[in-house]
Structure formats: C-alpha cells, structure tokens
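Need a sequence for this fold. Nothing fancy.
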C-alpha cells in the first residue's frame, strides 16, 4: 500500500532552510574548535597522538551531525533525505578543510589559535 506524501515545501523555503542548516552546523563546528583549542595546544598536557585522536573524533562527530541533520531536514522539506544528507556532508567536509587551511595560514602570520594551535 502506498502512503500519500505531503506536498514539498516551496523552493525558496527549501533553500532558506538548507542554508540556515548548513550555517548552523558549520557554526557549531567552529564553536567547538574554538572552545577546545586551548585545551589541546602544544603547551598542554596531552601528547601529539592524543590531540590528533581528539581532533579526528571531533571532525568525525561533526560529519555525523551534518549527515543526520541533513537527512532529517531533507525528509521534512521534500522527502529527499539522502540528497540533503550528502549535500550537508560534502559542504561540511569542504568547510572543515578550508577552516583548517585558513587557520594554518593565519597562524603563520601571527594569528594563532583560531581553530587549532599550529606551529609554523
């Protein structure tokens, strides 16, 4: 038996919610990176391996949040949960790479500890 689907939301509303959702997830990522940067700096008590494991877990957790959030938003907007999940994960991964590269570039110019403590 086929279940009747709701009508999809208006395209402008879909774009608005997708952009807001991406900004929310990426903002959460930047906030978490900023909050943990001093506890994971080179002068801290953690070894390099422990810091790298922590950052890998944090990045993986944020990708899972993006995946779940994108899926839920896509299902609610128009039933295309997988498409929104892929969109959120790809945009989030690209944003993470840009944030790390930008943080390293800024660190080498004297503005360290933006998203991670870097050594130039």
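Here you go.
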């Amino acid at each position: 038996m086929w279940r009747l689907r709701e009508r999809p939301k208006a395209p402008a509303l879909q774009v608005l919610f997708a952009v807001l959702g991406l900004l929310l997830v990426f903002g959460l990522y930047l906030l978490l990176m900023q909050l943990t940067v001093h506890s994971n700096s080179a002068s801290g008590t953690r070894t390099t391996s422990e810091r790298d494991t922590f950052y890998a877990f944090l990045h993986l957790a944020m990708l899972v949040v993006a995946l779940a959030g994108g899926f839920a938003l896509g299902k609610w907007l128009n039933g295309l949960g997988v498409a929104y999940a892929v969109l959120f994960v790809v945009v989030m991964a690209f944003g993470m790479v840009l944030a790390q590269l930008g943080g390293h570039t800024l660190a080498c110019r004297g503005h360290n500890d933006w998203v991670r403590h870097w050594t130039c």
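For context: The chain has a mean pLDDT of 84.
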